[in-house]
Amino acid sequence: MRLWPLRIFLEKARTKGDLLSQWVLLAFCTALLIIPAFLVPDPAMYGTHQKLLLPPCIFHYVTHVPCLFCGSTTSFAWLVRGNLPAAFLANPLAPVVFLYLVFFVLILTHSLLTGKTVRITTRLSLWGGLWLFLVMWGIKLLVWYFQKHC
Asked: 70: closest CA among 14, 148, 150?
């Protein structure tokens, strides 16, 4: 199965440790999808994570410019409410990450029900990943600039 840039293989589970690690990953991914449903998105489009008693973004605090991940929790909170435009404005990368998380939860659930293990490989190089993050950060900065100055 392919989900760009990932290749996903389901194989027979080799050890109980394989299954345990999949259960832990499933719990973590599911928590990332459920917790935002209990958070009220911050109207500033970032800072919702502080309701989870997490510290503010150091990069944003020092530079007054949002980092690549600023607004991710807010975006997830908008996504679980079905508001895609607000989610994209909060962080353009977060809806993509959210879809990948939903996909991983489905794949992990299927693999655990069938007793198989998941192996994920990627063809995305380090440089390709870096460029992807830089492009998404550029989009984030453009959205931030136009929200602030228009």
From this structure: 148
